[in-house]
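Researcher: Let's try something more involved. This one mixes different molecule types, so please make sure each is placed in the same coordinate frame as the others.
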Amino acid sequence: MGITSHDVARLAGVSQPTVSRALRGDTRVSAATRAKVREAAAALNYVPSEAGRSLSTRSTRRIGVLVTDLTNPFYPHLIAPLHDELERLDHRMMLFTERTEAAVAADRLLDRSIDGVVLATVTLDSTLPEELRRRELPFVCLNREGGSPSSDAAVVDNRLGGEIAARELVRLGHRHIAGIFGPENTSTGRDRELGFRMALADAEIALRQAHTRHGPFEFETGAKALAELLETTPVPTAVFCGNDVIALGALDTAKRASVAVPDELTVIGFDDIPMASWAAFELTTIRHDMHEMARAAARLLVERISGSADSAEPRRVVLEPELIARGTHAPAAGN
Amino acid sequence: MGITSHDVARLAGVSQPTVSRALRGDTRVSAATRAKVREAAAALNYVPSEAGRSLSTRSTRRIGVLVTDLTNPFYPHLIAPLHDELERLDHRMMLFTERTEAAVAADRLLDRSIDGVVLATVTLDSTLPEELRRRELPFVCLNREGGSPSSDAAVVDNRLGGEIAARELVRLGHRHIAGIFGPENTSTGRDRELGFRMALADAEIALRQAHTRHGPFEFETGAKALAELLETTPVPTAVFCGNDVIALGALDTAKRASVAVPDELTVIGFDDIPMASWAAFELTTIRHDMHEMARAAARLLVERISGSADSAEPRRVVLEPELIARGTHAPAAGN
DNA sequence: GAATAATTTGCATACGTATACATAGGAGGT
DNA sequence: ACCTCCTATGTATACGTATGCAAATTATTC
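Model: All components are placed in one shared frame. Result:
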């Protein structure tokens, strides 16, 4: 079992290298031979061995994708277009949903079974980027970025997104504003918070310590944080969430606590995942083009691998966010 | 660039085969040499080439996973535990979210770059299972099953699940019952419908043609189908959905149409995905252990590959479903 | 102390493909 | 008719690891 190019060669009456050349469209092989080889290959159901090819070419056309948690509703919307774009560029996707880090995880990436890596959930304090750089394995950051120094990345202008959210809340007359931000060790968490804070400061509105929460980009973060925020005085009339998933958690708590949204509480998310537009939520949020971001990451990486990247310098694709007004925002009560 | 076992051998002052043996814990190598080799390997940051190893051992410890659509909220809950169990069994996951079928898709599976396949979205009329069987590539069906003849599979007793849903509706006194089923060319769609119909028939309750809809296991299916069902007379007082995602779509339409759930309309889903328990939905549904199902599939496949499967006969793991009563079901109005 | 057994290591090679280089054959020019 | 040049193909080998078998070393036994 296992047809090789030698078998095809024997049947076609040519040498093995000729088979290799014929099947990959090498122009130096005559049309007649090419036809003969094609026919023999088809007759034998020949499929070239990927391992043999990899060993010889030192390239696998395989990309590793690192995500911490697939069940987070956000990531599939990144993974799916990423997969499709990689496929379009004739690459396959290997999925790693690692919880372990650096050294441990690195070994499975460094066995030359992949040509490059997409880091979709890298943290600012992760040593993985420098480890990959040291081992000269090409990689690109998607959605989040690592710490210094910068690398190829496809991201959103998160700071601007935070500012947009803040300005909208200010415009609506909110004065008691809360934030349920993402983790401080992620670029998305940090930058969205930063932009939000700066825009509030510009409007001379305070974001109290008591109205600030941080946590993973998960449903439970929003659910738990809003429950706590509802216990503070004054109760905030608006809350900006680090992403939609957190916002959905907040909405969950609001519903359970019978807090009317948006009449009593304005909620703004970030990302505009499809769920945000469901009737059950009608979440006002900051949209960006997640699909394009994923596709851009795929292209950056493949170009880097193939050496067709214009320069050795890191290249960044930065997408513009915009406000999507739905049903969870309203003017502050009493305005 | 690219440290090989030869480099390690040179540094340790032994032959390349000895390096191979030492690092893989072959007992025939002395403790002293093993230590020497380990040290040299560590000093050079040696990581064995996966391609070289695959070529030699004819095994990749890589598993292909086929899913049509990752953005469907159901699948990540299958993929995540599947990944983790495969990882536990020392295998890696290659993800294929193919839309193409059979011949085209098959080639990327047949280049010996994977040792086996998990089919998570196989249809009853797919020729892929027989193609894989013919090419002797081990595979297992997860959640759904293919047509004849049966293969290794980890599935739910969908027929029983359908029956449980039907009996509950009957118990609640519903007489005008509708069904938004999944695709008829999937085992899950077919069996859930079958069990549901049979239990209704036992109770001598008709399921009218006009109250029956089919479609992909997607949000839009439920949304669109319920909109249509609300136009029928008599309007159904209860609807059983092929899975939770369809049910969420139905709830979406109900909300937009101001149909009170559960007072005016009972909705029952299938799967019990985490979202079902969110306050926005509180979906009554048929639960089964998705994580265990995924893990079982991983084990079946790896055992099949390693040849440790007890027999050549197909092996099936069938999980029991149960009713999870939440907030979307109630007695029929007027009972 | 010699013969034998057991242990440890090296040698040769297989795995399947791609490619640098050599070569054979044919076309074209004068 | 001879030389040149190009095209098409074959030969030899590299890629990195694992393994059957032989060889060398050490331990064991009588």
